[in-house]
Amino acid sequence: MGRLDTGRILATLAVIMFACLAYVPTIVREGDIVFALTDVYLYETMINGLLLGGVLALLSLGLNLIFGVIDVVWICYAEVVMLGMYAIFYCHTVFGLPLIPSMMIGIALTAVLGYAIHYLVIRHLVNAQPINQLLATGGLLFFFQSAATLAFGIEFRNLGVSLGSFALTQDIYVSWARLAAFATAAICVLGLYLFLTRSYTGTAIRAISQDREIMTLMGVQQGRMYLMTSAIGGGLAGLAACLLVLQYDVHPFVGLSFGPIAFMICVLGGLGNMVGGFIAAFIFSELIALGGYHFDIEWGYVFAFVFFIVMMFIRPEGLLGKRS
Amino acid sequence: MALAIAGVLVVAAIVGLPPYPLHIMIVILIWAFTYTGWSLMGRFGLVSLGHGAFMGIGAYVTALLWNYGGLTPWLGIPVALACAVLLAVVVGYPCFRFRITGHYFALVTLALSEVVRQTIIATRDHTGGSLGFTPTPKGNDDTPSIIALQFDEKETWFVIAIVVWLAGLAIWRLVDRSMIRYALDAISEDEDSAAAAGINVTREKLKITMISAVMTALGGALYMQYQLFISPDTVSGIAISLQIVFAVVTGGIFVQLGPTFGAVITLLLAEILRVQIGTDAVGLDNAIYGIALVLFIIFLPKGILGSLIDRFATRRG
Amino acid sequence: MLALSGVDAGYGSFQALFDCTLEVRTGEAVAVIGPNGAGKTTLMRVISGLIPARSGTMTMQDLDLVATPPHDIIRLGIAHVPENRRLFPRMTVEDNLRMGAYIPMARARFGERLEFVYDLFPRMRERRNQLAGTLSGGEQQMCAIGRALMSGPKLLLLDEPSAGLAPVVVERIFELIRVIRERDLTVLIVEQNVQQVLQVVDRAYVLEAGSIRMSGSARELSDNEEVRRLYMGL
Q1: Residues 12-41 of A with CB under 8 A from C
Q2: What is the domain extent for residue C32?
């Protein structure tokens, strides 16, 4: 399994995917046959898919970090994002704070929440069976969801802020919020990558994900490292919340709609592999966007999940992951 | 012990329970059967988050065949079970063949359960999508109850539920006492050693998955026939998959009556909170449930019944 | 420097060490030899705190080791080169060495230590940007020893440094241990390669079924009939 192999698989995948979803079908619209290659709406869909990929990438980033370092799946990760969205919503709409400080409060709160999740729950289960870790965070999922229902009700809330959109060409419109999400995601991936490869602490975080016990011999207090990772992961969830709240309504069950996809992006990219996660996010987002364009958005999700299942059989270690 | 409980319940039913407790018991028994089906896999470390898929197939295939094909559930349910088995094999075989275990298995099955849920929503022209689906009532064309498998009397359902539940426990016992149990125990301890000892890992895992899928799909079909209403969120998807897993873990994953116990506790808790607190505090039941679950995992990882039995055993031993 | 007295330890209900007493003096090199499963690795892990001692006392330069949390052991000057090397396979050689100098007092002198290790193992300088998992067995052992030296230890614990290496490479590793000794390091080494290890150490203990059976100078033990018969196949 060398680099070449990975590259080849990725290239093949990309070709198959776009061939199937974008170029093979010709589209009949209002009685005219439109060839896919000349269809501007298709391009718009693909650009939107690309931008959605940025959001998904950011969403899976913190999860990926936690998953890779602590080797625990936070089933409740998307619910942390949901709580972050509520925090921003309340700060901005109810308490009347400006948007940017509201977002900073949201990020701070989710970071604290991440810390608390590790300190109160995961810490006791680091060496437990994976099923128990999964279930405990699943319990948190139920708790966060219902706590949000109790506190905020089941109404859909909207921040009421629209960044509008701009025309890329005459026919293709792109929303600013999505572009901002994409840019932020790209910057965060880069930032996190630099942190993990260049800084002492970041290197230690990578090391601890490769061999927990040995880092103790190096004088690293594992527990403290995990707490820090959890807080960073929580903060990244808060950041994702900032971008999602600009585009989507908040309600207590919003996590269920993007939680599963975030896990799958992490696994598909190769656990703890930021770059792989980034690529996986774009594959998923294009599948969803194009599936939605040709059929229905739900079919887009179905394609994405089926694709994930099949890929697990072909490359269980993930696109860029390495077999351990 | 299970038989004794069943006996008491039957007597209680004959003496005549009001419809409300009867309803609660029927629901608990049907879920208990489904939970038992899941625990057959779960106890061997095959943590599936995909049972929502099997349940959804059981419910929807049966209902669709009835509504659109006029096929009686007596035939529709077997077809639905066959579909569930087929799905179990299509996903299970490569999973086991390529040694996908632990977190990865949980996530693949999670994806499966979302595939089914999204498919149900996407085919909304036939399934009603998120709004749910109601099987055609028997009254329309004077189809006898027995053909439509729809009964007005709760007592009938109660007997069906008890029979099915007992069958579930019997299957559990059969598995517990068969060779497959030793094989799967060995596999969950160390897959490579088990394979080296001559156990066909893929085949054994596939067998138990098929049994478990059939039971879950049957649970789904019965739930649909009893409630006469289903929606993607009540019989499929991640939420249902998690609900199944949680209840089993709460009750105890390694003991025969554990899943039943889990069903009793979780469903009663939800029901009591709903009745006591009502709509003022929508979600409180789940909040308590969630916290209780976290506490259980940390302090009672063997579940309530499992821990009680353990304590009892150590005191005697 | 290091003194153990009456140490018991084990995993769960299994006891692996019984009443172990041993001592390593400053500047010495001491070996612990014995058959497979005698508890040699457990002994090392108890010293570096990865397994708690159930009873007995352990001190490092008169500081209590038993009461020291595992991640603080290295601050007392003990660096452990674990069995099977346990490098971080998906990190570069230099990042591996960097992790060895994690504790603040070592981090402050990182550049100087890195030079020291690169001078000791020029091969590591050549391979500094290579992933540790792609190194050969002997190189990995060098990297593991280098990583331990990065913390500037007073006492180096070496657990089976020659395991799984080709005979020629084993020669090189023992040569390295001689070089390390010249740099005023105290060494405690666990080995199955009895004949060769007795040539580089001053004294040795024989560990059998979790108990210290014998001890003596390297010369005494190499001349001992039983040791020759059981561990050297002579």
Answers
A1: none
A2: 1-76+189-234
pLDDT, position A323? 47
CB contact under 8 A, A210 and C72: no
Residues C214 and C225: their CA atoms lie apart, in Å, by: 12
Judge whether A302 lies within some domain. yes
- Per-residue confidence band for A10, with pLDDT thresholds at 50, 70 and 90: low
**Strands C63-64, C14-24: pairing kind:** unpaired
- Tell me if C233 is assigned to some domain: yes
H/E stretch holding A27: strand A27-29
pLDDT at B281 over 60: yes
State the average pLDDT over residues A70-78: 88
Evaluate whether C26 touches C186 at the Cβ level (below 8 Å): yes
In angstroms, the CA B44 to CA B180 distance is: 11
Please name the residue that has the structure tokens 């994002």. A81
Is A204 within 8 Å of C95 when comparing Cβ atoms?
no
Distance (Å) from the C-alpha of residue C168 to the closest C-alpha of chain A? 28
Winning range, highest mean pLDDT, from A158-162, B154-158, B286-290 = B154-158
- Please give the torsion angle defined by the CA atoms of residues C136, C139, C141 and C146, in that order, rounded to the nearest 10 degrees: -150
Which pLDDT score, from 0 to 100, does residue B214 have? 95
Is B115's pLDDT higher than 50? yes
- How many angstroms separate the CA atoms of A99 and A111, rounded? 18
Q: Which residue type sits at B152?
A: D
C45 belongs to a structural domain: yes
> What's the CA gap between B51 and B70, in Å, rounded?
27
Euclidean distance between CA atoms B149 and B155, whole angstroms: 14
Q: Tell me which of A248-257, A285-294, B171-180 is least confident.
A: A285-294
CATH of the domain at A158: 1.10.3470
The residue in chain A having the minimum alpha-carbon distance to the alpha carbon of residue B282 is A150
HSE of C68, CA atoms in CB hemisphere, 13 A: 25
Q: Are C82 and A214 a contacting pair at CB < 8 A?
A: yes
> How high is the pLDDT of residue A6?
59
Shortest Cα distance, chain B CAs vs residue A182, angstroms: 25
Name which residue leads in pLDDT, B82 or B69: B82
Residues of chain C with pLDDT under 50: none
Collapsed DSSP state (helix, strand, coil) of residue A286: helix
Q: Between the CA of residue B276 and those of B112, B261, B265, B281, what are the distances in Å?
A: 37, 22, 16, 10
What mean pLDDT is predicted for residues B221-249? 87
Q: How confident is the model at residue A2 (pLDDT cuts 50, 70, 90)?
A: very low
> Structure tokens of A10?
């990725």
Check: CB of residue B239 under 8 Å from CB of residue B233: yes
DSSP-assigned states of every residue in chain C: -EEEEEEEEEETTEEEEEEEEEEE-TT-EEEEE--TTSSHHHHHHHHTTSS--SEEEEEETTEESTTS-GGGGGGGTEEEE-TT----TTSBHHHHHHHHT-SHHHHTTHHHHHHHHHHH-HHHHHTTTSBGGGS-HHHHHHHHHHHHHTT--SEEEEE-TTTT--HHHHHHHHHHHHHHHHTT-EEEEEES-HHHHHHH-SEEEEEETTEEEEEEEHHHHHH-HHHHHHHS--
Our count of domains for chain C comes to: 1
Other chains touching C, judged by 3 or more CB pairs under 8 Å? A
Question: What pLDDT shows up at residue A107?
Answer: 95
Report pTM.
0.82
When CB atoms are compared, the residue of A206, A210, A218 closest to C100 is: A218
Fold of B2-316: ABC transporter involved in vitamin B12 uptake, BtuC (1.10.3470)
Question: What ipTM is given for this predicted complex?
Answer: 0.85
Instruction: Tell me what pLDDT residue B221 has.
Output: 94
Q: Is the pLDDT of residue A50 over 90?
A: no
Q: Are A288 and A245 in contact (CB under 8 A)?
A: no
pLDDT, residue A22, reads: 53
CATH number at residue C193: 3.40.50.300
